[in-house]
Write a structure and sequence with these properties.
The protein is an all-alpha fold and about 240 residues long. Helix 1 packs antiparallel against helix 3, helix 2 packs antiparallel against helix 5 and helix 4 packs antiparallel against helix 5. About 65% of the residues lie in helices and about 0% in strands. It contains eight helices and no strands. The mean pLDDT is about 80.
């Protein structure tokens, strides 16, 4: 078997030429590797951007749905206050029910952070998404508080007389529910006949990353959820 042996170098010029060939080869190899890595991250960024826009669009649609319930929540809390002996509120004449809170996902953002894609987004775009999801975290925490409060207040639907013990248990929950509802309404005021979520903090940042045109305007809800909301919001 023939084995190619390197030619002996007879001068510094030949030596420099050999070194140059090696350097050029290494440079080409590294450039090719960097190009492949750039193409990889470009693809990841495009996919992540599409997923984030879709997710934020869903969250804003859900937020609009929840904001529209604010007048219902205020009215029903007033009815609860009357049933528990708080002066100035109308009586509780029908089943209380509960407000409906559509899901507000954040999985795409969690994946984007865990995979490192966020660091490859343009700095301004990444900043907008951080603001959106920080606000979303606050929003979901307030929603969880409201769910918990309304689950406790649902004891009024059992039909039993309101005893001093039940009254003592539910009055602090009612007070907390009013505070949380007030915070939520202050952060997300209802815009009559308009797009409430679009004008809020999340909506303004979402517009900067091109989310607005991807929104569905109507969250995907089950018929049971829609029926429950109708019962909750109908006038006494």
């Amino acid at each position: 078997m023939d084995i190619h042996r390197p030619k002996p170098v007879h001068s510094w010029r030949e030596f420099a030429s050999e070194i140059l060939v090696i350097v050029v080869g290494i440079t080409i190899a590294l450039s090719g590797e960097q190009t492949l890595e750039w193409l990889h991250w470009r693809h990841e960024v495009e996919e992540t951007r599409a997923a984030l826009r879709k997710e934020v669009g869903i969250d804003l649609d859900s937020l609009d749905f929840i904001i529209a319930e604010e007048p219902c929540i205020d009215r029903r809390l007033a009815e609860v206050g009357s049933a528990l002996g708080v002066p100035g509120a109308p009586p509780l004449k029908r089943p209380l029910g509960q407000p409906q809170f559509p899901n507000m996902p954040s999985a795409a953002w969690d994946v984007a952070r865990a995979s490192g894609v966020v660091s490859h987004l343009p700095q301004e775009e990444a900043s907008h998404y951080r603001s959106i999801y920080t606000e979303l975290e606050w929003t979901k925490a307030r929603i969880d508080e409201q769910r918990s409060d309304w689950a406790t207040l649902s004891a009024l639907d059992l039909g039993a007389p309101i005893s001093p013990i039940l009254q003592a248990e539910l009055l602090p929950t009612l007070a907390h529910a009013k505070v949380v509802a007030s915070k939520f309404a202050q952060n997300y005021p209802l815009v009559p006949g308009g797009d409430s979520a679009k004008t809020g903090f999340m909506g303004r940042h979402a517009a900067q990353v091109g989310v607005d045109r991807l929104r569905r305007q109507t969250p995907s809800l089950s018929s049971a959820t829609i029926a429950s909301r109708r019962v909750f919001c109908e006038a006494a």
